[in-house]
Fold:
Amino acid sequence: MKKFINHVDDFLAESLAGFAAAHADLVVLNNEPVFVRRKVLKPGKVALVSGGGSGHEPLHSGFVGHGMLDAACPGQIFTSPTPDQMMAAAMAVDTGPGVLFIVKNYSGDVMNFEMASEMSEVQNAIVLINDDVAVEDSSYTTGRRGVAGTVIVEKLVGSMAESGASLEQCKAFGDRINKRTASMGVAFTSCVVPAAGTRTFKIGDDEIEVGVGIHGEPGRRRAKMAPADTIVAELLSAIVDDLKPQADAELLVLVNGLGGTPLGELYLLFNSTRAWLRQRGLNIGRAQVGALTTSLEMAGASITLSVLDDEMKTHWDSAVHTPSLRWGM
Amino acid sequence: MNGKTVMACIEAAHATLKQNTDEIALLDQQIGDGDHIFNLLRGMEALLAARGEIEAAAFGPSLDVAAAKVLSTVGGSSGPLFFSLLSGMSKSAATHALDVPGFSGIFAAGVDAVGQRGKTGVGSKTMMDVLIPVANRYRELVAAGASARALLDELPRVAHVHMLATRDMLATKGRASFLGERSRGHIDPGARSSELMIAAVCAYLAQRIE
Structure:
């Protein structure tokens, strides 16, 4: 394992200290319990609190700031944070109208956030994100995973909260965006969890994992390496099968890097995506390309599509100022 | 039974997890993401650090102290689930005799609380596949008038058999569920860690009654 580490047990604390120092104009790091919060709160606004295992940076701490989150709770690498972090974060950023927890659908995250929601004295609601179409949805199982579509929910609901919407409105909007959003990823290499020190999964030089999860969980199938257009076609077919957009639908496209893939390749993927969608008469209304929901150093990418409506477009275009997403201000 | 007994059981559980760290990590890398044992050990170390507080408390309250520590340090799925086990046991401690037979009701209350939090029973390839059969057999043995010695002998065997049985199950809960059919053929790491801790606690209690 080659990583920038001093002592493996100190990895998270040192990384978060660096993050908070680098973005001291926007965020404040709280210790014991650990959470990152906006430096300046907007009184009377519904607060958005997210969190999850670390290792997906910039998700979630990189999206704390105007127009997105009010606080983020980082857990250990790939491990859900604990309810005391979430309750303390909620208490710190609530200015009266309540807190919306944005939670990716994993057993650990769901249970910890549910406990925080039950025990918190702050009025709150939960939006559960499950955009990954690689896993079949079923009430009998844990169901679909929450992946890069989370960024879109955080951006859009964050904007709605800034505009003065109520907790109920923000929750309903989050649920609606989640239903209109679908993602799927592909991995070329495995991530390495620092505490384990070894690759999470083995994969041959000529192999790819289609439908990989953001913790290196297996996806739909192990396949042979193929041209980008072929890989994009497989991902988009699965996503479009799930979303079933209308013929004149406008889409928000997010091409997301998983950590070890250069931006140049992500733009190539966007180009392939554009061509595939155009052939099927689907329009791209908005686009975002970059590594926003990563899996440590995993090489690979995911594609997310959201079926836009006017309200979603307005909230995508509105001003945002966070460490990792900024426009309009 | 008091806080000192609880602390000694925690020490026994910690020792067995330490001894079997590599095996559990490997099981978890096969069908999970490899963090299970590290999360448990982090929780155990927090419990060892809280020795004074745990030992000073009566049996029920000492479990409550331990539950709160687990919840704030473990994270992942294990945090809420082991919190529920300890907290469920703590809540029922007041209404049961604090001896080996009475403890069957306390343990069952803890296991029920885990099931409610995780919304899982037997057959999903999880720790419940060990906890529920052990709780059930425990009650049966107590109802049949088994001695403490016989109980402490038999329960680790029940845990072991049911841990092994998770190998052929299809995971439908937690991260292993994302593997679908590929989850078959691997023992569930949570079933293995639960089995190891049950065996260690039974061994400690058996040695104490000698």
Notes: Chain A touches chain B at residues 33, 53, 75-84, 106-108, 111-112, 114-115, 135-136, 140-142, 145, 193, 195-196, 198, 200-201, 213, 215-218 (CB under 8 Å).
